[in-house]
C-alpha cells in the first residue's frame, strides 16, 4: 500500500498506469482471528497452518462449498451443460441454511463480496511455503468404468486423479508470471520449505497434486464466480522477524506488480442490445474452453486468455447470439471485443407454448377442414 501511494505521488509511470487503469482491492487480513493466534505464537513457535483457523474453529481456506465434486458428479451423469452449468454453479441449499457449519468469513457476507467485486484475477497471499498454487485443489475420485478392474474402496485417498480446469493453461500463465518474477521462488535445488520440491523447479504447482483438499476458496471462486484465483505463498517463514521484512518485500515486489498487470491480458468489452442498452448476465463463451463468464450489471465483461485467436460468442435469454473472432496479443493490453445482440422471437414463442400448456402446437394443414374442436382451440389461442 505504501509503495503504490508513494510511487504514484513520485510520478512512477508504471505505478501510475496500474493505479489509474486497474481496480485494485487490498484486504489486509481475511482471517483476523487466525492472525492474532499466529502472531502470539511468533516465528519460532507457530506451525504451518496456524493462521488458517478462525476463533470458531474453522479452517477458513477449506470452508467453502465443494462445487468441484458436484460438477464432476453431474458430468458422470452427462448432465453438463444442458441441465447442470459448467460455470457460476449455484451454492447447495444445505450450505445456505441458518444452522450450517460455516465460518463468518466464508458465509453470506464473504460470498456476496466475492460475487459483487468480480475480481480478475484475485489472489490470496499466504506464508509457510514458497510457491504458487492454482486450481483444482480438489482431487477427483477415480471413475469406475465397466472395462476397469475393481479398485479397493480406499484407493481414492492413495491415488486421486488430477483433474485440470478448462483454464489450465491460463492458470499456469498467471502462476508463472508471479513465480518467474520472484527473486528466489524458482531456486528449488535445495527442495521445498518443508519437503521435497513439488514444483519441478518452476515454483508453481496444481493444488490437488501438492495438498489436495475439498471446498477451497480457489475452487469456489473459479466455479461460482468469474474469478481465476490463485494462492501465492510468499516465503517459508509465516512470520519473519522485523530485520527480514525488507528482503521479503524485495523478493516479492516485482512479482506483485507483474501479477496485477496480468488483468489487462485477454479480451474485454460490452454486450448491448441494438438500442445501446447494456445486457447484464449475458454469457461469454470462448471456443475450446469449457468454462464461461457472465457480464456485470453494466454489460461489461473481462476474460483473461493466453495469446492466440479465439472464436467468442455472446448469448443472453431473449436475444439472438452473436459470434466473432477475437485475437489476444503478447503485449499487455486486453483486446476490445464488443457484442450487439438483436432480440429474438423465442420469448414470444415460449409465451404461446405456455398458453398451450407447453404441449406441441398442432400444425394446420392447408386445404384440410378443421374439426370443431380444432377451430375452438384456435379461437381460444388467438
Automatic annotation (TrEMBL):
InterPro entries, per database record: CarboxyPept-like_regulatory (IPR008969), Peptidase_M14 (IPR000834), Peptidase_M14_domain (IPR050753)
Record has Glycoprotein as a keyword: yes
Annotated stretches, region: Disordered: 106-162
PROSITE patterns hit by this protein: PEPTIDASE_M14 (PS52035)
Keyword Glycoprotein attributed: yes
Protein name: AEBP1 protein
Native source organism of the sequence: Pedionomus torquatus
GO cellular component: extracellular space
Family designation: Belongs to the peptidase M14 family.
Record's keyword terms, sorted: Glycoprotein
GO aspect biological process, one term: peptide metabolic process
Amino acid at each position: 500500500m505504501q509503495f503504490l501511494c508513494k510511487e504514484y505521488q513520485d510520478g512512477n509511470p508504471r505505478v501510475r498506469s496500474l493505479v489509474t487503469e486497474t481496480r485494485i482491492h487490498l484486504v489486509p487480513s481475511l482471517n483476523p482471528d487466525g492472525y492474532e493466534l499466529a502472531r502470539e505464537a511468533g516465528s519460532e513457535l507457530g506451525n504451518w497452518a496456524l493462521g488458517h483457523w478462525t476463533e470458531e474453529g474453522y479452517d477458513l481456506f477449506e470452508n467453502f462449498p465443494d462445487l468441484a465434486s458436484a460438477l464432476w458428479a453431474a458430468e458422470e451423469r452427462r448432465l453438463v451443460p444442458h441441465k447442470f452449468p459448467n460455470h457460476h454453479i449455484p451454492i447447495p441449499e444445505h450450505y445456505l441454511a441458518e444452522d450450517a457449519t460455516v465460518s463468518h468469513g466464508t458465509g453470506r457476507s464473504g460470498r456476496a463480496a466475492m460475487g459483487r467485486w468480480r475480481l480478475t484475477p484475485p489472489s490470496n497471499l499466504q506464508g509457510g511455503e514458497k510457491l504458487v498454487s492454482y486450481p483444482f485443489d480438489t482431487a477427483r475420485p477415480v471413475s469406475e468404468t465397466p472395462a476397469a478392474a475393481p479398485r479397493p474402496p480406499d484407493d481414492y485417498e492413495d491415488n486421486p486423479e488430477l483433474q485440470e480446469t478448462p483454464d489450465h493453461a491460463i492458470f499456469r500463465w498467471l502462476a508463472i508470471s508471479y513465480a518467474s518474477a520472484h527473486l528466489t521462488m524458482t531456486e528449488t535445488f535445495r527442495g521445498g520449505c518443508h519437503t521435497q520440491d513439488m514444483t519441478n523447479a518452476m515454483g508453481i504447482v496444481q493444488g490437488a497434486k501438492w495438498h489436495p483438499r475439498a471446498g477451497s476458496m480457489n475452487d469456489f471462486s473459479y466455479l461460482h464466480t468469474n474469478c481465476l484465483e490463485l494462492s501465492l505463498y510468499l516465503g517459508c517463514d509465516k512470520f519473519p522477524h522485523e530485520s527480514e521484512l525488507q528482503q521479503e518485500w524485495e523478493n516479492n515486489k516485482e512479482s506483485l506488480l507483474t501479477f496485477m498487470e496480468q488483468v489487462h491480458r485477454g479480451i474485454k468489452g460490452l454486450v448491448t442490445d441494438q438500442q445501446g442498452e447494456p445486457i447484464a448476465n449475458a454469457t461469454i463463451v470462448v471456443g475450446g474452453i469449457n468454462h464461461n463468464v457472465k457480464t456485470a450489471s453494466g454489460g461489461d465483461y473481462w476474460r483473461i486468455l493466453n495469446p492466440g485467436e479465439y472464436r467468442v460468442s455472446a448469448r443472453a435469454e431473449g436475444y439472438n447470439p452473436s459470434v466473432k473472432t477475437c485475437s489476444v496479443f503478447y503485449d499487455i493490453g486486453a483486446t476490445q471485443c464488443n457484442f450487439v445482440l438483436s432480440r429474438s422471437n423465442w420469448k414470444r414463442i415460449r409465451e404461446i407454448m405456455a398458453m398451450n400448456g407447453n404441449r406441441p402446437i398442432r400444425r394446420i394443414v392447408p386445404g384440410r377442414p378443421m374439426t370443431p374442436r380444432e377451430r375452438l382451440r384456435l379461437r381460444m389461442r388467438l
